[in-house]
Amino acid sequence: MHNTMFNMGPPNCGGPLAWRYKSELPMKMNVETIQLNAEVESLLVTAELPTADLREAHNLHLFGVRGDEQLIGIIGVEVYSSAGLLRSLVVATAHRNGGYGRALVSCAEEWASQHGVKELYLLTTTASPFFKRLGYRIVQRSVAPSAIADTSQFAALCPSSATFMLKPLIAIKALRSTQKSRVPEL
Known about the structure:
- This protein is about 30% helix and about 30% strand.
- The longest helix is centred in the middle third of the chain and has 15 residues, at about 100-115.
- The chain contains 6 helices and 8 strands; from the N terminus they run ββαβββαβαβααβα.
- A hairpin with a 2-residue loop joins strand 4 (about 70-80) and strand 5.
- By secondary structure, the protein is of the alpha+beta class.
- It has helices at about 40-45, 100-115, 130-135, 145-150, 150-155, 170-180, and strands spanning about 5, 30-35, 60-65, 70-80, 85-90, 120-125, 135-140, 165-170.
């Protein structure tokens, strides 16, 4: 298992990260690449998120955060060339509002950007205000690239009433370039 320490924002997973909001308190957490297992599925089922297609998803990359040796949050990214599907974000109820969700999304976005994903899509029935605060915008389902529209999550598992959202990841690369240019060379 690969463990890396992350703070809660860009520019890159695995290094010192900038705080996006002045109100955020400095906090380190261990976000790690994880494998699909019973612990992951249990957390998803508890949150009533779809799991039926996870075992068949060969292009799914999962990240998790632990507290007291227990998995308390996860997120996944399915990669389809330059498009990605952000999915399965869940933070255990007792740990919500502690920045874990933002940290997981930030890590997933950075990872996706580093792996050639230019646009990240998601479906949500309950969390659109959260994702709007992170720069996602609501779009019509009809604009979904065919690779995203053909996923089980889009085509069958999420209800048609789910909000479909998009975030271009080019902004993340631009932010990373800007921040690197401010770092003086030694």
